[in-house]
Design a protein that fits this description.
Radius of gyration: 14 Å
Strand order of the largest sheet: 1-2-3-5-7-8
Largest sheet: 6 strands, mixed
Shape: globular
Number of strands: 8
Mean pLDDT: 91
Number of helices: 7
Order of helices and strands: HHEHHEEEHEEHEEH
Structural class: alpha/beta
Helix content: 40-55%
Distance between the termini: 38 Å
Strand content: 15-25%
Length: 149
């Protein structure tokens, strides 16, 4: 299970522009060390450590027509062979840390399969699901990236 998840994580990392290119332009994998330096003064130690444990963080530009006032979005991704509610919760929590630091960030849980409980958790938490390359609920997750309570 763990090796399959790691292999899948590497696939998403290597092929991020292919997986996310229909939603974002100029998709880049974020170098976690540089991000840590930027966030050190914006987040508490516990939140920063949690965020840095994310499986994958991407940044990309929204297509012009999608949202005029904000062109960049950050995507926090948790990858697992079978997505469960804990993966959804981790993605939501870690994207929340980035939003707390002032970044427009959305959450994605990705895997080959998804449990029914994870489907429901994704709806409740506005987390997009990427199941075997097919994306569900991108728009609600994207809206969450720009939500300011």
């Amino acid at each position: 299970g763990e090796l399959r998840g790691w292999t899948l994580e590497q696939r998403y990392r290597t092929h991020a522009p292919a997986y996310f290119g229909r939603f974002l332009r100029r998709v880049e994998v974020v170098e976690i060390g540089a991000l840590a330096e930027d966030l050190r003064d914006r987040l508490g130690a516990v939140e920063l450590e949690d965020l840095l444990l994310a499986d994958l963080i991407l940044v990309g530009r929204l297509p012009e027509r999608a949202r005029a006032e904000q062109e960049e979005v950050w995507v926090v991704i948790e990858v697992s062979a079978t997505v469960d509610p804990e993966d959804v919760e981790r993605a939501a929590r870690r994207a929340g840390h980035l939003r707390q630091a002032g970044y427009p960030a959305m959450a994605v849980a990705a895997g080959r399969r998804v449990s029914a409980e994870a489907q429901e958790a994704g709806v409740q938490a506005a987390v997009a699901l990427m199941i075997d390359g097919r994306v569900e609920r991108w728009e609600p997750a994207l809206e969450q990236a720009f939500y300011r309570p």
